[in-house]
Each structure stands twice: as structure tokens, then as C-alpha cells.
Amino acid sequence: MADLIEALRAVVGEAHVLVDADLRAPYETDWTRRFTGQASCVVRPASTEEVAGVVRACAAAGAPMVVQGGNTGLVGAGVPRGDEVLVSLTRLRDLEPVDRMAAQVTVGAGVTLEALQNHARAAGLDFGVDLASRSSATVGGLVATNAGGIRVLRYGSMRTQLAGLEAVLPDGTVVSRLTGLTKDNTGYDLTQLLAGSEGTLGIVTRVRLHLVPLLPARAVALVGLADTDAALELLSVARDRLASLSAAEIFYADGLRLVRDHAGLPAPFAEEFPACVVLECTDRTDPTDAILDTLAECEAVGDATVASDAAGRARLWAFRETHTEAISAAGIPVKLDVSVPLGELPSLVRELPGTIAAVAPGARPILFGHVNEGNIHVNVLDVGDAYSEVTDAVLRLVAAHRGSISSEHGIGRAKVAWLGLSRSPEEVAAMRRIKDGLDPAGLLNPGVLLPCETGSSG
Amino acid sequence: MADLIEALRAVVGEAHVLVDADLRAPYETDWTRRFTGQASCVVRPASTEEVAGVVRACAAAGAPMVVQGGNTGLVGAGVPRGDEVLVSLTRLRDLEPVDRMAAQVTVGAGVTLEALQNHARAAGLDFGVDLASRSSATVGGLVATNAGGIRVLRYGSMRTQLAGLEAVLPDGTVVSRLTGLTKDNTGYDLTQLLAGSEGTLGIVTRVRLHLVPLLPARAVALVGLADTDAALELLSVARDRLASLSAAEIFYADGLRLVRDHAGLPAPFAEEFPACVVLECTDRTDPTDAILDTLAECEAVGDATVASDAAGRARLWAFRETHTEAISAAGIPVKLDVSVPLGELPSLVRELPGTIAAVAPGARPILFGHVNEGNIHVNVLDVGDAYSEVTDAVLRLVAAHRGSISSEHGIGRAKVAWLGLSRSPEEVAAMRRIKDGLDPAGLLNPGVLLPCETGSSG
């Protein structure tokens, strides 16, 4: 180990190899505090070359590595199990000039989403992905987990934004696809393979991203509805009529009640509705009239309120966006992130409470999410000691509806045991063959996504 | 071999294993007639299960396979080198009902692009990819080559349309991702890995596709311009102002002359312009006024003509679309398909004639393509016996401009020798490790995309 520490110091400089327990500690626990483990050291490279040097030193020593970005992950993929070298990428913070002709930019993996957004907007463009942890989440982590967020409906997930990337493979070689070609059919798309691979196939160090037009006009509608079926009807009408639609978020009466109690918010409607949808439209000119016309056309609408000024929009978004905070304030929830084919969403939502009650009587499920993608964040409060039973029951119900046990958070360590619910043995075998081909010694993020094999380094 | 033929007959039935030379012949030469080779037999499975049976039989016999769709490829990936079992997928023609709520459809790999388009339109939706060989090109081939075409600007390439797929891996196992989940972060994206892999990692048998809105209103502008720089200026203004922009195609004066002579078309403008761009907008309401406003705003426009009726649109498109036919009528061209970063496009276009003349004096380069993607189809007439020299010189020039030697046609066999111009040794090594992981015996499309290794089955 002393030899490895020396080798790492030679690569990144003494100040950036943290061996002291106090210095390591902030990196060793994720922000949910559910995942924690000791690293043999934390190493903080500042360039692709330094990352490659770190990986080569670890490979030579047979030392497993765990890769960390902003440490905002929810499935424990970025913290050590024990004794790995923790490679933190937050020093890769280069923001290259925006290429306005191509509407692209190249940035370092350690750049936060917020810094990227500000950089794009300063050049008169915007970035297609947005999510709540924008001030901490890093671009490298967003790529490694193929992050989603609230604008997937309009712009797709993180993998859709990728025009290319640079990465260090487990053997320390560097692959670099940063020219930003929109069309390039010269073999396997390593960029797309690395996106969503959770750091198990390579360490993303730089990313070439597509940017989107910066649209100045915005309007938000909060709509009260009878149930999830009505929400799907509204969604269908909105997608048909509103080319400017950029978000469609759903939540339910119990979540709304929790949020209102927590934040002291007034009732949005005179009447109480079982389900609510927030629609947001973003355009070159004010989309308010288009939204109002659309709502008038849709019979499923129970009641609705629309705002186009910043304060009004924030007021409506707050009913949705305060969910996470209000839930955390009410206890330590089971947090699951699932999606099902859109047609299955109403029955999933109907069946979830009973499924959860069967294993944790008295538990309180709070559901909210991205309705267009059939993506529901299942938060369950008051589960007592039935954490694992609730997780198992929910994920099995999702699988029965042909859904994904991880819609946007990834598998990490948290869901490895349930991977088989979403991926067949044949698919897992194919993934394993790819992993073994690129990382035969199993040194990169062992135990993340795929279970450790007996006899391998994990 | 006789044993293998028997085994294949047991899988697909005797009528669908073609051993007679006359019956095999239509499958053994590509439509450019540049690539030809004998297959040991042609096998025509009709379902995923039959494809899996064919692959297992071949794997057991150690027999290499070559996979063919509509046989419209331009790089020789779908015809045998010699003695492979040719697996033709044209019988996988299932068109499942369109899922209007999800705006998705599942179809067999052998469905033609045209049949898919008609199927989507009958349900009030459309498919995002369109290209000239639509009546023959099959969905499986479009996926395997990540086909592009004229609407990439609006909807992206074929890989962007994929909501999932079903494929048979080289060991005969089936992976199936057909639930159409828009968000699913449960491990490596095998769908995206197989897209563009040219049949070397698996045989795509069914595909789940995103559909796009069927937009009824359409207008086309033909614009005369001073040069490629002016075309980029027009593109930039059009992208900023026309959310309905769906195509931007470029061609040049010598191509226009060839097309007019071939098809007897009148001059589009009173004056002759060095470059022309076709813009198409597609929208819910007539985009003509928006196009006219945009053209009026753009100083680079030399002259322009706009049409919104079907006959007028066809008349303007003909100047671009007749290029391939007019070139073929004038001789057997070198046909290359390249792209460069947009900022490099003007210098590439300026340098190509001199670069070609240096190795083939008297050769006539005709350039046209998809300007938004920096994608130029380089056709060179009258090259004499300098076919390979012209190819080499053009591809090296493209590489010097940080471009791709294959923008949308793939590597196939035609460009294997030049792969290193677009992909680094480290990338090729990574691709090889993936290939060896999934197809250790090298039985699937040997010699396509990656060179055959000494000692492997190719």
C-alpha cells in the first residue's frame, strides 16, 4: 500500500492524495448516509492524464478503485465498500468556450450541472438536463448514471445530450471522442456504452455536450385531476397540441397535504383532487394562451391555474418541488425510483399502497414523478424495520408491470440484488462479458451494477 | 457442411435454406455491384426463435455468418466474403399495432422503412428517419448501420429512434428489450451498443421505435449562395428562427449542372450560384411565412424560391434528390460519405478538388449532403484506375479536419483498412475487447468493421 500511495503522489502531487481519516471522511459517506465505507486513500487528479496515471498505478498494484463525482448519487455507487482507492473527479473543472455554430461545449467531468447551465446561458444557449441537485451533481456523474430530471420529455436523458466524451479505461488507456461530430458511424459507440455504466467500464474525464436554444418565455399550469388515467389523458392532449411542452410532473393528494403542512402553502384549488399535474411550456414567445387553449380542450381537467410570471411559476412548482424536502422532514423514507410502460402507470399507482401495506402496515407511500416517462419516485415513510421488505415488494410489483427497477438513479450497490427483476439472465451475462472484456481484473467500481464474482478482486 | 444444412433446414424448413447457386445469387452481390462473394447457403428465418436456432446451429458447427437486411448497404457489410452462412432477415416482417399513448411501435427487422412509415402514418403518427432507399432498406439494417438521412437535423439518426430491441447474440442467446421504457437505468445499454455495430455483436430481430407527430404542413426553400460559409450562415439563422426546420441539404454548381442536364430541369435562378441549400420546414400550420421572414433576415441569401404545394416542393427537392441518379448515369463514381465539425466544412469543401486532382487528374468531384451535420457525400467521377488512391486521399483529408470517414454508411468491408483514420488504436483495442467478449469465436460478420484477426475464424 505504501508503494501505491507513493506512486499516486507522484501522479497528482502529495496534497491530492488524502490518507488521513479526517480528510477522507467527507468522501466516504453518501449524502443519504445509507452508504459508507473506508477508502484506502482519496486521490484527486486534475486532468485526464492524471486520471490515466492514477488508473495505471492502481492497475499495476491490483488495487480496486471507486469513482466519485459530486457524491449526490442515491444508490451507493460512488462510496467505497472498503479499502478501494477513491478517485474523486471534482478537480476536473475546465469549461471550454461554447461552440455556438455547433451548439456544443466541452467540459470537465467535475463541472457541476449549475456551472454548466450558467456557462451555456452566458453564451445564449441552454443545457437540456435539469435536476434538483444541480449545485453539487457533476457532469461526469450525470453521464455515468445517465441522469434524467424534469426535462426528459423535451430533451431526453443525459445520454441524449452527449456528442462525445473522453474516458480512461480500466487498463489506463485513454479514449477520446471530443470532436462533436453529429454523425459518425465508425464502429461501436463507446460514448453510449459508457453512459449509464456507473463507472464500471471506464472513468469519464471530459464530455462534449449538445446545447439547446435558450428559450425566454415560460408558463406553468397546475392541474387538478381525478386520477392517473386523467393525468394520462391530459398528457396525451398536451403532447399533441403543445410543441413547447417541456415538463409534465405528477403528484397525489397525500403528497400535496404533506407539502402544504411542511411549507405552510395554501390550497391550490377550492376543491381537493386525488391527483395533480404540473405542466411547463418553454418557448420563444409566451405560451400561456396555448396552455389555456389546451386545458380548455381536455375534458379530464378538474381545475387548473396558470402562471407565466416568475413568482407565479415558482409558487406552482413549489407544490411539486417541495416533496423531497417535506418527505425528509417527516422521517427516513424508503426511496425508490421506478418506471413502467405508460399504459401500466394507473394500475401500478393503484396497487402500490396495498402492496406496501402487506409488508409494512401503517407505512405511508408518497408518490410523485415524471408522468411522460412513466417514472414514479416511490417514497415510503414509517416503514419501521421493513426497509428491505418494502423495497422488495415494490420492485417486484414494478417488474410484474414490465417496468424498470431503476428509472434514473442507476443500480449502484443498492439494487444489485434486484437487477434480475429488470434484466434477464442472458442480458446480465452479456453485460458481464462486456465488463470482463474491458476490466478483466474487476478493479473499477467492484460490486457496483453487477455482483462481484467469486474469485474476482471484489 | 451437409450436417449444418440439415440442422438449418430443421430450424427454418427446407424451402428457406437456399443452396442452389441461382437462388443464392441475388443475395451474394450488393446493389453497388462492388461487393460480391459466395455464401455456403442462404438461410431465411421468420422469427427471433428461428434466428436463434440458426445461430446456435452455426455456432455448434463453427460456421461464420453474414447478416443481410434489404441489401442496400454501401460498404459491403451484408454480402459474403466467401463460404459464410448468409442469414437474410427479410421474412421478419411483423408490424405490431401502434401504441398511440407511448407513441411507439414494435416491428420486425425485415420490415422496410416504407412499410414502417405507412404503418405509423395510418395511426396518425410518423417515423423520424427518412432516406432514399426507403422501399428496400429494412429496419434491422437501419439499426445495424445507425442510418441517417435527411431528417437527422430534426429527429436524430436511427439510434435516437430506438426505444429498445430484441437481438440474438453470437452464442444464440436472445436479449429482449421491447417494453419501450423511456427511462431505464439498469445497466449497460445493449440497444445502443448494437445500434451501429454492423451485425458484428448480435443479430437484431425486432425493434421498438419512437414515433414522431405527423405534421401536415410543409414548405421548401431553395436558396442560392456564394459558398459554404454563406450556407453555414443561413443554417445558423434558420436553426435560431425556425423551430419547424426539418432538413437542410447542400449541393454545388457542378452537381446542379449535372442534374439539370440529366433530368432536363430549368435553371432555378436567373443567376448561377456556387452553392445551393434546400431548407424544409414541417409544422402543424403552414411554415411559408416563417421561412420567408427568415430568408429576409439573412444577408447571406443570394436568391431564393419557396414552395408549399406538393408539386412545387417536389420541383425544388428534385435539384437535390436527382444527384445520385445523375451521377450514376454519368459513370461509376467513387462514393464516400464523410463528416467534419461544422467549422471545418468550408475548408474541406475548398480543399477536396485539389486533393482529388493530385491523385486523379481529370476526376470530377460532385459534393452534396446534410449541411447541419457537416456530412458530405463525396462522389468522384472519371477517376480512371485511381479508385483506391482517391479514397485514400479523401479520407486522409477528412481525418486531417478531425472528421469521420463514415458519417452514415458504416465501415463495412469497404473502409476497414482506413478505420484507424477515425478511431485511435486505444479505441480499436476497446472495440476488439467488446467483440471478443461477445463473439469469442468471431463467427458474426467476420471482416466487417474490425479487421479479421490472425487465427480467428475469418
UniProtKB/TrEMBL annotation, chains A, B:
The keyword Oxidoreductase applies. Transmembrane segments: none annotated. It holds the Pfam family FAD_binding_4. GO terms for molecular function: FAD binding; oxidoreductase activity. GO terms for biological process: respiratory electron transport chain. The keyword Flavoprotein applies. Its cofactor is FAD. It comes from the Bacteria. Keywords: FAD, Flavoprotein, Oxidoreductase. Residues 35-214 form the FAD-binding PCMH-type domain. InterPro entries: FAD-bd_oxidored_4_C, FAD-bd_PCMH, FAD-bd_PCMH-like_sf, FAD-bd_PCMH_sub1, FAD-bd_PCMH_sub2, FAD-linked_Oxase-like_C, FAD-oxidored/transferase_4, Oxid_FAD_bind_N. Belongs to the FAD-binding oxidoreductase/transferase type 4 family. This is Oxidoreductase. The lineage of its organism: Bacteria, Bacillati, Actinomycetota, Actinomycetes, Micromonosporales.
